[in-house]
Write a structure and sequence with these properties.
Layout: H1 4-14, H2 22-38, H3 54-69, H4 74-93, H5 97-109, H6 114-126, H7 130-141, E1 144-145, E2 151-152, H8 154-160, H9 166-181, H10 187-202
Antiparallel strand pairs: 1-2
């Protein structure tokens, strides 16, 4: 049995002078090595603009909290960043987070400079982590029975039934082919399907 059960107790009892866990030490070394080689940490915030708006400055405060911990505690950084997005969306748009994101995306897609939008989307898709691709594959292949007792895939239905766009129909066929080709219960098939999704996103 691992001795982590001892280390966890020691970490709490000795805090804030606790000895970091081995994974934390390795991660910090990677960040330090990157900084020594490149002259900066492996994270670069986008350029912000000055505004007296109270909501905007509240969000910036959360982002500052995020940046202060992101080099060595990215899990906490994510939390601060999510708080800033959640706060901003609730104040600006009201409603739940899903509806807020839809509203935000609609506004982005309606901007006049489509090149900027395409560049942002390309950057996001090319950085899609493997775990998210695996999660996506799981959700896309998952079918559940509706109120009439019929098998239905809610995720695919959301994508497809709202549009008669031929491109969407081509994507539907591709997704169904992948679902049919790979067996989710087989670990190797599951990884291969997720990798295929990752390649699709990158290209």
């Amino acid at each position: 049995m691992s001795d982590f059960y001892k280390k966890r107790v020691e970490y709490i009892n000795n805090w804030p002078d606790s000895e970091p866990f081995e994974a934390e030490i390795k991660y910090k070394k990677l960040c330090d090595d990157f900084k020594e080689k490149n002259g900066r940490l492996p994270f670069t915030p986008m350029k912000m603009w000055k505004s007296p708006d109270v909501i905007y400055n509240r969000v910036l405060s959360h982002i500052i909290e995020c940046l202060e911990v992101i080099p060595y505690e990215p899990n906490h950084a994510f939390n601060y960043l999510f708080i800033s997005i959640d706060y901003f969306s609730k104040i600006k748009y009201n409603g739940n987070t899903t509806e807020n994101l839809k509203t935000f995306c609609e506004k982005i897609l309606n901007v006049s400079n489509k090149t900027i939008v395409n560049d942002i989307l390309k950057e996001i898709f090319s950085s899609m982590p493997f775990k998210i691709c695996n999660f996506l594959y799981n959700k896309l292949r998952y079918s559940a029975k509706n109120q009439n007792g019929q098998e239905t895939n809610q995720v695919l239905n959301r994508i497809i039934t709202t549009s008669n766009n031929k491109k969407i129909q081509v994507y539907e066929n591709l997704l169904i082919d992948i679902i049919n080709k790979y067996d989710y219960s087989n670990g190797s098939d599951r990884r291969n399907a997720a990798r295929l999704y990752q390649k699709i996103f990158k290209n």
